[in-house]
Q: What sequence folds into this?
């Protein structure tokens, strides 16, 4: 999906996370729903180059 903010265009990439239902239930505005947890949490993260006010930095 292509988005823009204050004249800068960027591409959004979404990732799918597999989840399983837990025994814990939450309630919000009268509706009850089950909480979900990720199936496998890998510790490997790809560094992302970000830019804020002209300064570039890495997010791990």
A:
């Amino acid at each position: 999906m292509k988005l823009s903010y204050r004249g800068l265009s960027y591409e959004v990439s979404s990732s799918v996370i597999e989840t399983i239902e837990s025994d814990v239930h939450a309630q919000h505005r009268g509706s009850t729903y089950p909480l979900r947890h990720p199936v496998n949490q890998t510790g490997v993260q790809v560094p992302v180059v970000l830019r804020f006010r002209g300064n570039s930095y890495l997010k791990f």
